[in-house]
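Worked example 3. Consider a protein that binds iron/sulfur cluster.
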Amino acid sequence: MPVIKDVVCTLCGCLCDDLEATVEDNKITKVGKACKLGRAKTMGPFLHERIEKPMIRENGELKECSYDEAITKAAEILVAAKRPMSYGWCSTSCEAIEKAIMLAEETGSLIDSTANVCHGPSALAAQEKGAPSCSLGTAKNYADLIIFWGCNPVHAHPRHQTRYSTMAKGAFTPNGKKDKKMVVVDPRNTDTAKKADMLLQLKPGTDYVLIEALRAIVNGHEDILPDEIAGLPKTKVVELAEMCKAAKFGIIYFGMGITQTRGRYKSGDNVASLISDLNQITKFVMIGMRGHYNVTGFGQVASWETGFPMAIDFSRGYPYYNPGETGTNDVLMRREVDAFITGAADPGAHFPQESIKHLFNIPAIQVDGYANPTTEFSDVVIPAAIAGVECDGTAYRMDCQPIRMKKLVETTFKSDEEILTEMIAKVRELKGNGANGGA
Ligand code: SF4
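Given these inputs, the predicted complex is written out as structure tokens:
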């Protein structure tokens, strides 16, 4: 039976590239080396119901149509809109993301990624303070102190610890876990925390305070701190600061516990400051635990295409960026947007109620392999091939390393890249014919 080796898993930001997929009769029948989540994702096209055909909503019902009809309808909606918005594109290839940005430019749209509801504040923090970082390979080989702050890799990134962090055997940590200390900072006693050498179970929303206290201790100002910090005894905070100072190579892997709690990007920029303080004493780095497998790729492509990583507004005819004003939920909550296109994301399941209410009232286009809550309010639904299974492409791992995804089986579905390329051509044709709107 043909086994394809070095397959890339396209679920989480770990982008594990060592999977083994058995393919029989153009079907994946077995996936080796993946975690449960990765196996389900890679075999997904053969396990879950697909959106079989393109569809357009008529009198409240989605009716099947051809790709050409759906793409034309989508282009008409975007060209007719005064303030269109494009969202998502983080579970697809960089090649498709490039086209989504081109389509946004052609139609004078706003375009934003799923970072709007997860690690967006990390990008703002990096713009303010930088992000002293390294590759996961470097971290695997050198790190002897691993801090998971506001994240739960046991469930969200199941192979992170064995491939890159706590259990991984590195060149300078040949005994794996025995050569490393693991700390978890989290208000909950998570399954990751249960395996840690030390858990700092801080009060919810006090991350900024704890980071600030650690900085004070690292900089020799322990005496000014109170006996209780972020709901923790000062002695425990001092103990963590001492562990950090004693490490040969430390790393903070941070999640939405930092980026989506009180303080948001200010907490992220304070982590960067803590890392910089610690680098006066030893070696320390930080990496965001990115969720969607190519949300990092969106930031990369958008930055090199427009100068900005997300929340980009093309309505002025050039890229403008001001998260808080131009983010997806900012414009949806202000009811500013009059057409919406989303791809490889599910805003219907993740957006606040006020945003969803508005999405029900405007024309919406969905490009996706599977039906999800977003399908319920979409007026045009275009099925897409699953990147990394049915088509190839590039994705960026959470440490900004580009990885090439393979095509494993043949399909009749068009890729996101093909759909967007055809939509751009259609938009140009409509604009050339004197249609209203656009950039
Ligand atoms: S850890 Fe993430 S990338 Fe790796 S196999 Fe599991 S889901 Fe896939």
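Take a moment to read the result before moving on. The longest strand covers residues 19-24. The mean pLDDT is 92.
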